[in-house]
Structures are given as C-alpha cells and as structure tokens.
Design a protein that fits this description.
2 helices, two-stranded antiparallel ribbon, three-stranded antiparallel sheet, alpha+beta, 76 residues
C-alpha cells in the first residue's frame, strides 16, 4: 500500500508541474528590452534569462541561454 501511495504522490507532483508549465507558457514573453528570452528558464523556473547570439557556420541563427545553456537554432 505504501508503494502505491508514493506512486500517487509522484504522479500528482508531475501533474502539478505540468499545470505550472502550461500556465507559465501562456504568460511567456519572447523578449525583454530587445533581448530574446529563454523559454526553458521561464517554463521550468519562471526566470527571465536572455539568449545570446552564437557564431554559426551556416546561415541559421543560433542563440544560447546565459543561465541554463539551452541552445536554439533558428533556420534561415
């Protein structure tokens, strides 16, 4: 019975985290003061972190989060 209760608590925590992520995503601002913001930092921790442009060997734009290191490639 204890294992079942622990599993239930685990699933409830995951559902709560998913609900928070959905709420945060709905309030996500793409930019702040002209800087693109990291969606991962906002959704996971509700932190506004700027993305930094990175050098690219292609025509694609690459940005990396200053806080978590998340990298986004924007196709040309």
């Amino acid at each position: 019975m204890r294992g079942l209760q622990e599993r239930l608590a685990e699933v409830e925590a995951q559902l709560h985290a998913a609900d928070l992520a959905q709420q945060r995503f709905a309030r996500f601002d793409v930019t702040l003061d002209g800087d693109l913001l990291c969606p991962r930092c906002w959704i996971d921790n509700e932190v506004r972190a700027a993305l930094t442009p990175m050098p690219s060997k292609t025509a694609d734009d690459i940005t990396r989060c200053r806080k978590c290191g998340f990298e986004i490639t924007i196709p040309a």
